[in-house]
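Comment thread on ticket #2218

A.B. wrote:
> Attaching the input chain for the structure job we discussed in standup.
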Amino acid sequence: MTKDRYMKQEMTIFPGVKALIFDCDGTLVDNMHTHFLAWHKAFKEWDCQCTDQFLSDMAGVPTHETIVAYNRQFDADLPVEEFAAFKDKVALEFVTDFEPFSDTVQLVKDYHGRMPLAVVSGGQAKHVHGSLDYIGIKELFKTIITADTDVAPKPSPDIFLLAAKELGIPPEQCQVFEDADPGIQGALAAGMKITDVREYR
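C.D. wrote:
> Ran it. Output below, let me know if you need it in another format.
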C-alpha cells in the first residue's frame, strides 16, 4: 500500500523542463531504514560502529565509496570489496521491506508518456531494479543508471550528464528529484533544476 504523506505543497515541474530524473532510495521508495539496518549489521560483523549521522551524510553515495570514506574519516582499515559484498548481501534481506512514496511515484505515473524519465541512483543495479519492479514502475523509465554504470557517482555531475545524454534532453531542461545532498550537488553542478523532496515530507 502506498504511504500517504502530508505535503506542505504539491511538487511542481519548472517551466521549460522536458525530462524528469529521480533518485531511487529515499525519493521514490521509503527504504532508507533498511539500508541503515544493513549497514549496522555489516559494521557489527567487523566489530565496528557507525553513527546514523555518518550514514545520512553518505546517502546517495555508492557502497564502495562510503566504505572508503569511513576508513578515511575514522582511521579504519575495513576491506572494501569484502565489506561491500557482505553489506549488499545483507541488504537483499530487506529488498521488499519498504513502501513507495506516493508523491514522487504519482509524478512518474503522471508524466510517463509526456516526457522521458530516468532514475539516477548510487545503489547497486540489482537493488534499484528490484525496488522499482516491486512497486510496478520500472518499465516507466527510459533509462536507469546505478552504481554499476561506468560513470563517476554522485556528487559528480557526470552521472546526471549521462542521464541527460541517454534521455536526449539538454541538462538545463532536466529536473531532478533528490533527497540527499550529494545528489543535489551533482545535479546542480550538471546545470539541472532540482527539487529537494525533503522539503515536502
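A.B. wrote:
> Thanks. Noting for the ticket: The helical segments are 32-45, 52-57, 63-74, 80-91, 102-111, 125-134, 158-167, 181-189.
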